[in-house]
Amino acid sequence: MIIPRYLKQGSKIRIVSPAGKVKEEFVMPAVEWLEKQGYKVELGKHVFEQHFQFAGTDAQRLEDLQIALDDPKCSAIICSRGGYGTVRIIGQLDFPKFKKYPKWLVGFSDVTILHSWLNNLGFASIHGVMPKNFIDDAGIPTENLISLLNLLEGRAVEYSIPSSEINRNGNAKAELIGGNLSIITSLQGTKYELNTNGKILFLEDIDEFSYHIDRMILQLKLSGKLDNLVGLILGDFTEMKDNESPFGKTIHEIILDAVQEFDYPVCFGFPAGHDRKNLALAFGKKWKLNVLENETTLKFI
After folding, report:
1. Which one, 11, 77, 103, 220, has the greatest CB density within 10 A?
2. What is the pLDDT along the chain (301 residues), one digit of tens a residue?
3. CATH 3.50.30.60 fits 158-300, yes or no
């Protein structure tokens, strides 16, 4: 796996909007803060464009992202937000110049499709917070941003969280992959789908019905994507819904039932995804997962 160069004083960061439209007020405070830290920040020409629900037309979003991927002086590409739309341009992106000049790609949610494809190409990327949640209301960098910068700048990272009573204990050391469950399942049968063999898989989602989660996790199981994992980490499943006639199981119970025949460690409740706390994870890099009775640790190797 190829690891892009870590950021340092003066490194160039590009911000692009490959999916949903975003307001300036959600991006510019982050830009100003990054510049005060000594980074050079350049916004894509169409970052704040609006075309129905998208940040500009497909052609505009494609142009900005392609320029960022090709830029030999850029060290990191940060997506302004998720939403929907990256799938509409992924097939038209070219990566020869990116392969020659690798850089970190940062984002989550809809950005999962880019993480998946970069992983297939052999490049590490970062599932992490986007500009709206870089700075709190008092102008102070959030814990999410600090965790992101730790990875971007090459510092040692180790997370420790209380263990859930439904965790399955064990340990694993392997490459971490994953992202948004809905996006991952939508990539099945395409060249962008994840190879999960021998990996630690991370999953999160938002605003889904219980039976949707059941269907998607079973799709992963039936396609063999859960068979050869060495570990499973479940992040936040935020704003979940149920029908008037309840499904009958919690989200955690649905997932645990789907993997009950396997013996790898399973961690529930890792603080990453669409909730307030969204700790950064480097995909394509090896992590050490220890799921213990009282504590779960995830250490960047």
Report:
1. 77
2. 999 999 999 999 999 999 999 999 999 999 999 999 999 999 999 999 999 999 999 999 999 999 999 999 999 999 999 999 999 999 999 999 999 999 999 999 999 999 999 999 999 999 999 999 999 988 899 999 999 999 999 999 999 999 999 999 999 999 999 999 999 999 999 999 999 999 999 999 999 999 999 999 999 999 999 999 999 999 999 999 999 999 999 999 999 999 999 999 999 999 999 999 999 999 999 999 999 999 999 999 8
3. yes
Q: Helix 210-222 vs helix 251-258: angle between axes, to the nearest 10 degrees?
A: 10
178, 216 in Cβ contact below 8 A?
no
The domain ranges of the chain are: 12-152, 158-300
Going by their DSSP bridges, the two strands 286-291 and 170-180 should be labelled as antiparallel
Element holding 59 (H helix, E strand): helix 58-70
- Same CATH fold assignment for domains 12-152 and 158-300: no
Domain spanning 12-152, CATH class: alpha beta
Q: What is the dihedral of CA 276, 200, 112, 36, to 10 degrees?
A: 50
How far apart are alpha carbons 236 and 34 in whole angstroms? 27
- What kind and span of H or E run contains 231? strand 231-238
